[in-house]
Design goal:
There is one protein chain. The chain is α/β, with parallel strands linked by helices. It folds into two domains: 209 residues, Glucose-6-phosphate isomerase like protein, domain 1 (Rossmann fold, 3-Layer(aba) Sandwich); 64 residues, Helicase, Ruva Protein, domain 3. Helix content is 50%, strand content 9%. The protein is built from twelve helices and five strands. It has a five-stranded parallel sheet, with helices on both faces. Strand 1, helix 4 and strand 2 form a beta-alpha-beta unit. The radius of gyration is 22 Å and the shape is globular. 43% of the residues are buried.
């Protein structure tokens, strides 16, 4: 039996506990997860570096999974576009059963290995891309089918699971196995396993974006200005980095057509928008290199 399916002795008699007791049990178990993830940083590093290499060569990152695992992959992929202004196809999330399964569980979809091949084909997956299969149990047929297909194409593969010695790891060039242990609610991997998976995905996508020039210092300088909150965030970054007031920052951002990095270079280097964009291209999008 996999560890995520075993019973947790610390939560036995859960139905007899008070609200406060239940909450404390869940919280105490959750506090073990960051340490467990930390133990796997060397493996996470290998996968992240492989993803960065694929990005630099013009390839894409695909996440694939079923149920909670699939939803978490779709979530992480969806956040990349507004956060880092990447092409919408640069990071894709695929869930067994399609987008309908995001809100309405299609539980039997995870049992079909062949469905994964069709889904990857429909989404344009190629040998130049990298596939990360996500399955808390480590044995979801849909994810195994996806990894088999990717390897057959000659694409790089990674996996994220919450059980040691998992089946999906056999088909991954860069496997990540986090021993999250038994859940407070037996088998409910949306809990600790889901938390661990989300943490790893955060680490992978954020670090890979830093490594390809989407971040300056600890600031999201490549964000897409699509609402008032993000506009204010963009202005604050320009004000702080260039040491100017808000009115000046607003004019720069407007002149740069909403491109934060371009606006900063225009001010820092006293150059035109065209020159700033050319400088960014020369430096592969890295703002720090452009400023120096």
């Amino acid at each position: 039996m996999s560890s995520t399916e075993s019973r947790n002795n610390k939560s036995k008699g859960l139905d007899t506990k008070s609200t406060l007791e239940i909450l404390k049990i869940i919280n105490n178990e959750d506090m073990t997860i960051a340490k467990k993830v930390g133990e796997k940083i060397p493996d996470i590093e290998k996968l992240t570096d492989a993803i960065v290499d694929v990005f630099k060569k013009g390839g894409h990152l695909y996440y694939i999974g079923a149920g909670t695992s699939g939803r978490l992959g779709v979530l992480d992929a969806s956040e990349a576009f507004p956060t880092f202004s990447v092409d919408k196809n640069m990071i894709k999330g695929i869930i067994a059963g399609g987008d309908k399964a995001l809100r309405n569980p299609i539980e039997n979809a995870e049992d079909d290995e062949n469905l994964a091949k069709k889904d990857l084909e429909d989404h344009g997956f190629t040998k130049d891309d990298l596939l990360v299969g996500i399955a808390s149990s480590g044995r979801t047929p849909y994810v195994i089918g996806a990894l088999k297909y990717a390897k057959k194409l000659g694409a790089k593969t990674g996996s994220i699971t919450c059980n040691i010695g998992s089946e999906i790891s056999k088909f991954a060039d860069y496997p990540i196995e986090i021993d999250t242990g038994s859940e407070v609610l037996t088998g409910s991997t949306r809990m600790k396993a889901g938390t661990a998976t989300k943490m790893v995905l955060n680490m992978i996508s954020t670090t890979s974006m830093v490594r390809i020039g989407k971040v300056y210092d600890n600031l999201m300088v490549d964000l897409r200005v699509s609402n008032e909150k993000l506009k204010n965030r963009a202005l604050k970054m320009i004000e702080d980095i260039c040491n100017i007031d808000k009115n000046h920052a607003e004019k720069l951002l407007d002149d740069a057509d909403g491109r934060v990095k371009c606006a900063i270079l225009m001010e820092k280097k006293s150059i035109s928008k065209k020159e700033a964009l050319e400088l960014l291209e020369e430096n592969e999008g890295f703002l720090r290199k452009g400023i120096q």
